[in-house]
Structure formats: C-alpha cells, structure tokens
Description:
Shape: globular
Mean pLDDT: 91
Radius of gyration: 26 Å
Largest sheet: 5 strands, parallel
Structural class: alpha/beta
Strand order of the largest sheet: 3-2-1-7-8
Low-confidence stretches: 6-11
Bound molecules: arginine
Amino acid sequence: LVQEIAVQGPSLTVPTPDRGEAPILMDYSSPNIAKPLGIHHILSTVIGQSLYNLYTFSGYRAIAINHIGDWGTQFGKLFIAHARWGTKPIAEHSIDELLGLYVRFHKEVDAMPMLEDDARAVFAKLESGDPEIRAFWSSSVAVTMKAMEGTYRRLHVTFDEVIGESFYEDKMMSIVEEGKQKGVFVPGKDGAPIAPFPEEEKLPPALVLKGDGSTIYITRDFATVRYRIDRWHPQSILYVVDIAQQLHFKQLFRVIDLLGWEHPHLEHIIFGRMNFADGSMSTRMGTIVRLEEVLDEGKRRAAELIKERGEKIQTDDPDALAEMMGVGAVVYGVLSQNRLMDMIFDWKKVLTFEGNSAPYLQYTYARARSVLRKAGTDGDFGVDGTAVTSKEKLLLKQLMEFRSAVNAARTEHLPHKVTTYLYTLAQAFNAFYASEPILTAEGSVRDRRLALASLTASVLKCGAELLTLRVPERM
Ligand code: ARG
C-alpha cells in the first residue's frame, strides 16, 4: 500500500480520463478599478484561484482571466471628483487617495445631484475617445493595477490574462446590431435597446444600452463571451462572482442562447457572504475594508501567536513565518467553508494551532519534515506494507483518499473538500506520531514510518498549494 502511494511520487498527479483538449476559462477576482481590493474580493479571488489550481493539477488546460472593471461611470465620478477637489496629477495618487476622491464624490452628490449627470457625461466622452479623459483614465488604471499586484503576490494568485472591460470597447456595437437584427434586442421605453425574455421565464428584461447610447456592464459581457469563444474555443467558461450578480449572469447566458451562438458550458459559480464573527473589520460607512488591511491583521496576529509560543516555535525567519501563517489563516478561513453558504470569519478559529486551520496544517507539515530531517532522509523509498499498526493503517487509508478528495473538490467546485481532507490527514498523522515511535524504531519498521511521514508531508504540501497556501520547513 505504501509503495502504491510512493510510486506516484511527490507530485501525486491525479489523472482524469475525460479532460479533453479545449481549455476551461476561469473568470475570477475581476475587481473594479479606482478602488483598492476590498475584503469581499477575497472570496472570488481565492475560490477562483484554488479551482484553477485544481483543474491544472488534474491535467486540464485552464486559463485564468482577470476581467478588470476598467470601464464605466465610476471613471466619470473619479474625474469629476479629481477636477473639483484634486490637488495633484492623478498619476501621483495612491490607491487610498483615489478611493478618498471616490468616497468624497458619493458624500457630496446628495447635496449636488448634478454631479451624477456630470459624471455620466464624462464617461460618454471617454467612450467617444476624448484624449484628456483617456489620459486620465489610463493613469488611474495604472495606479490601481500597481496596488493590486502586491496583494495578488501575497495571496499567490496569478492570472494568464488580465483583460479589462475597456478592451471590448470596439467589439460591442456589432453585437448590439446583431441582436437588433435577430429581434433579440428591441427598443425599450426610452428607445434604448433591451433584451426581453419569454414571459414564462419570469426574467426581467436586460438593458443593453443606456438612454444616451453608452454601454453597460452586460453589453461588455456579451462581447467578452464572443471574444472568448472565438479566441480559445473553450469547453467551459466559469465565472466565480458574487451571488449578487445572479440575475446578471442569468440574463447574460439567456441572451447568448437567444442570439443562437454555439457556446460552451457557461456557469456562474456563486458564493455566500462573509461576516466577521466579532464585528471587527466590518464595513465602515462610505468606505470599504481593504483586503490588504485584513492580511496585515492576520500577519500581526500570527506574529503574536509565534511570540506567545516562544521556544516551542523554531524559525529562522519569524517575519516570513508570520506572513505565511497570517495570510494562510485568512485564506484557509475562507476556503474551509462551504462556498454555498454564508461564511463566518472568526479570528479565534482561523489563527490557532488546534482545529481545522492553516497553522495546524503548517505545524503538522513542519513536524513531519522535522522527523525526516533528524533521520537524515527524504523517506521517499519503497517499503513493503505488511504488518502495519492500526494508526499506520488509518494514516495510509487517509493518504490514499487524496485523489478522490481532489476529484470531488474539482468536479463539484468545492475547495472545502480539500481542506476537510487535509485536516483529517493532519489528524491521522498526529495520532500516528503520538503513538508510534519513528526515529527509535528499527529496520523496516523505521523505514516504513519515515516513508509515511514523507508521504504525509508531500500530500500536505501539495494540497496546501492547491489552496494557494504555503507550508514551512520549520516551525
Ligand atoms: N467587475 C465585476 C465586479 O466587481 C465582476 C466581473 C465578473 N466577471 C464578468 N465577466 N462579469 O462586480
């Protein structure tokens, strides 16, 4: 049995017979520009990335796309705010200052409703190619992208393609025309085209363009689907997006059908809301809780935990360990919950060495590595599986379940199936470690136990990385 796992090697590849050649496109994170990443972005970002990792790990060709919201009225708002209250060129602003301008706009608009019209007019100008507004737009995009890159790096999130909504600017009108010709888009009350749906579907009509002819979010998504089909011929397009956009995606998918396009499987992967257990970091009026702040808070709390443990924690680099634990704890806190339900984020539960948490897995990994280090081996040798004790058997059985846990998590798009698996594995290892001597055992028994420690370490590392986590060699 040990051999069987050992034979698969540390990569523990999960073969799948039906993966096909066509890629799976994954649209995740996809934030809107001119605001920093907020805590709510973590859900789409890490659920998307872990599903992407699960697909590629299983031998699929997956393409990660960050569909940046870099087009829309918010630029008009930012432009107006900057024109009124800005004190320096837009490119010299930090992302927080951009947010500040945006927030100020929303504060003042109550007293000056015409600001809203000004903003719309600016966006219409942007769409018609006004050079001054264009330059402003590209500067604010650059400021935001730079700020986001740092956060993505901390989260081990990467994209194959970053394509903003602006990219589709010249690809929308032909689709609007096509829809009109096919009778899918008809004039609405104010004359602007809408897409009505058959009565029995009880789906409200989708607005296709605004009254002033400017495009909206869904118009850009029509063009995006067309582009993705033509460019990649994917087998599916998965959108990992907040449940608040359920209507949007229903309408989008139905319009694609009504247009008669041949299309791949289209799916909106939803997730519940995340709430902080102690009310900390809840949204403050008019502003957002920045994702970066939450990661920093995780790191700070991890550093405290490391200090508390004192001698019991061995590390050459407490700062790097705190980052790994803190960020890992936040991410794991999200991914360990069933995405279909509302989630509760509780610092006490995510940052602890006991229970289903990142630090517990990281600690277990470090423990397995430490045994191997002391034995002076990687433990990756074949051994016979006879005469195993009950604790060894339980551990082995759990190691063998890795494939099916990965397959289930991937096919059901439920990353928490991996965390549950890893938690059970860590428990099985710790039970084994507590009751079976490893280093002091002899001959083939010692080898077998070292092999088990080695396999446990490999699977924990591999599984953690599927979830974007990192594990320490020492802790
Ligand atoms: N930018 C959008 C938002 O922040 C999400 C985009 C999701 N992807 C898409 N193709 N519509 O709400």
